Amino acid sequence: MKRFYPLPVFCSLLLALSGCALHRPTEVAPPDAIPASFVELQQQDAGEVASGRWWLRFDDGELNRMMASLFADNLQIEQVMARLQQAESTLTTTRSARWPSFSLEGQASKFEEPSAFGDVDGDSYSLNGAAAFELDIWGKLASRAKAAGKAFSASREELQSLYLTLSANLAELYYLAVEQRAQLALTEETVDSYRQTVETVEERYRLGLVPAVDLYQARQSLSGAEANQHLYAGNLATTEHALAVLLGHYPDRSFGGELAVIPPTPELFPVGLPSDLINRRPDLRSSLHLVEAADASVAAAIADRFPSINLIGRYGSSRQDLSTGLIEGDFWRLLGNLTMPLIDAGRRRAEVSKSRAVVRERVAAYQQAVLEAFQEVEDALADNRETEQRIASLVRMEEATGSTLRLALDRYNLGVTDYLPVLTAQRGHFEARSRLLTARRQLLSARISLARALGGEWMMEEIEQRNAKQDN
User: Residues near 373 by Cβ (< 8 Å), separated by ≥ 6?
Assistant: First the structure.
C-alpha cells in the first residue's frame, strides 16, 4: 500500500498555482499620440537639446558662482535628500522580508523545586539558533519590494526635479535683481533730469515767462520720479533677501551680485523632438515610477488574500545538571506554519479596491503631468518669440519718445508751447525706457523657463558631487 504524503502534494499544488499571474501589470501611456512637432516652434529647426548645465549659456561668472553655492547649501535640497534616504531605508526594510531571518538565543537558570521524591535542585543551560522564512508563493513580498523600489526611484527623480526648479528660480531672481538695479539707475537719471527741468522752469517763472502751473507740474514730475526710486529700491531689497534665503543664508543684501545692466540674451535653446521630452523631464519619470509603485501594491494586496506559509527552524544544545542526574544533548525542530484568511469583514478586498483606485489616480496624474510639460514648452516658445518682437517695438518706441521729448523741450524753451507737452513727453520717454528694461529681463526669463521645461541630465552629477562633499 502506497503511503500518502499530504505536505509535499500540497506544496506542489501551491507551486503550480503560483505560476498563474494573480495581477496583470497596468500599461501606462501618454494621453493620445505625442505630437510630431511643437506647435509654437513654427519653421525653426528643433535642433538637438543640450543636456548639460543650461545657465552656462548666459556666460555670467557671478551666476555660475551662485549656482554652485545653491547646490551646496540650499536647505530644500537637504530636505528632499533626507526623504530620499528614508525611502532607501524603507526599500532595504521591505526587501529584507524576502530573506530568512536568523537569531541566536541563550538561557541559563539555577533552580530548586519540590517533587514526589523530595527537593530537586540544579542548573540549566541552553543555546540555540533560530531561523524563520516566509515562502513567497504568491509574490506578495516581491510585489512589496517592487513597490518600495519604485517609490525610491520616484524620490530620486523628485530630487533631480528640485535641482532643475531651484536652478531656474535662482536665475530668475538673479536677473530680476539686475533689472531692479537697472530700473533704479534709470530712475536716478530721470530724477536728475527732472531737477534740471525744475531749475529751468523756476528761473523762467521768476522772469515772468511762464505761469505758476508750469512750476507745479515740473515739481510734480520730480516727486513722481523720486517715488519710483523708493519703489525699485524696495523691490531690489526683497529680491536680494529671497536670493540669500535660497542660498541657505539669513536675508542679506550681499548675495545678489552688483550687475546693473541687462546682459545680452543667448540664442534660443534647441528644443529637440517632442517624443524625447518625456525622458528628459525628471518630474515625468517620477510620476511614472509612482504609477508602477501603486501597481505593485495592487499585486501585493491581491496576494495578501491567499494563504501564507512560514517555515521556522531551531537547532541547539541544552544541559541540565540536576541533583537527580545530568541531562544534556542536542535538539532540533522544524515547523511549517500555514495561515489562511477566512473572514476579515471585507478588509483585504477593500484594500485591493483601494490600491486599484490609487493606480487609476496616479495614471491620470501622470498623463496630466505630460500634458502640462508640453504646455510649459509651448508657452515658453511662444513667450520667447513674442517677447523678442515686443522688444523690437519698444526699441522703436524709445527712439520716438526720445525725439518727442527733445522737440517738446526745444519748443518750450523757445516759448512756443506751455509745459504740458514737455510733461507728457517726459513721462512717455521714461515709461518707454522702463518697459524696455522689463521686456529685456522678461526675455531672459523666457529663456530660463524654456530651459526648465526641457529638463536635462546634469542634475545627477550635481547630486553626486554634493554627496561626495558630505561624505568627506
Answer: 277, 278, 281, 283, 284, 453
